[in-house]
Design a protein that fits this description.
Blueprint (H helix, E strand, L loop, with lengths): L11 H29 L8 H18 L8 H17 L24 H31 L4 E4 L9 H4 L12 E3 H11 L1 H8 L14 H8 L9 H16 L9 H8 L9
Antiparallel strand pairs: 1-2
Length: 275
């Protein structure tokens, strides 16, 4: 019998008691998962004042260098600020642990596996990953147990035979039209297709995004929980920044240099023999 002569008539109860419940359950579980993830996330810990001061000093120097070619500071003030920062970096004034001692050995960067804050972030990410994976496993088992082999809906547009294995998973019927969708395939279509609805309801930065379930627990930990950055040796960064500051002093150009002459030239108020 050819596939063009096969006609299926679905009982309306399949729509009411299988199609709609699967869709509604997946939407509600995604919304619930979003709020559970928000409850599990702990607020980020505040950095100590000395650590913030250390970071801000480096950022201040970088901004000073970035604006050296069109600096709003006159040369005298720019040079004073640059030399002050360079001397402070040499003395270790902005280091959170204070200036380094001459006979002290170089401290090794902390191990992330022994850092309590890093371990807390990793555990929080793994808990978030479990909240994302367990509901999907339960829903998939529920569909396989109660609705295995059900045909739920027929798509209103033609498809090639390559979509048959994707849309009719769990239904082994070679003569069925490709447009028919089984219950298990409907689950996967909702699994990846509801992300747009979640973004509409919960916003762009929501935790109901099903694509996160495909990540590893460690990748999910990094994505779900803000992690402290990799330990940096600010003593070495400050030494490198000193060289950059010395180089940028030669590139300094005051944006307001000869501003009076430029304004007079622009509006034609400068005489022809003026210097």
């Amino acid at each position: 019998m050819s596939s063009s002569t096969v006609s299926l008539y679905l009982d309306p109860q399949i729509r009411d008691w299988v199609l709609f419940p699967i869709t509604v359950v997946m939407i509600l579980v995604g919304i619930l998962r979003h709020y559970v993830v928000l409850l599990l996330q702990s607020p980020p810990k505040k950095l100590p004042r000395n650590a913030i001061r250390e970071q801000r000093a480096l950022v201040r120097s970088q901004i000073l260098r970035a604006t050296s070619a069109n600096s709003p500071l006159p040369p005298m003030y720019y040079k004073a600020v640059s030399q002050y920062l360079s001397q402070a970096f040499a003395d270790g004034t902005y280091l959170k642990d204070g200036p380094p001692k001459g006979d002290a050995p170089a401290s090794a960067p902390p191990n992330p596996l022994t850092d309590p804050s890093a371990m807390e972030g990793m555990m929080a990410g793994m808990k978030t990953q479990m909240v994302m994976m367990v509901p999907q496993m339960v829903i998939m088992g529920w569909i396989n147990f109660f609705f295995q082999g059900f045909v739920l809906i027929k798509l209103p547009f033609p498809l090639t035979l390559g979509f048959k294995s994707m849309l009719q998973r769990g239904v082994e019927t070679p003569d069925m039209d490709v447009r028919w969708v089984s219950s298990l395939s409907w689950y996967f279509l909702n699994f990846f297709g509801l992300n747009g609805l979640y973004r509409l309801i919960l916003g762009g930065e929501n935790s109901a995004d099903s694509s996160r379930d495909m990540n590893t627990p460690f990748a999910a930990a990094a994505a779900a929980t803000p992690q402290p950055g990799q330990a940096q040796d600010y003593n070495k960064l400050f030494k490198a920044e000193r060289d950059n500051l010395e180089f940028s002093e030669g590139l300094h150009a005051w944006v307001a240099a000869d501003v009076d002459t430029r304004i007079l030239k622009k509006y034609g108020r400068l005489s022809a023999n003026a210097q």
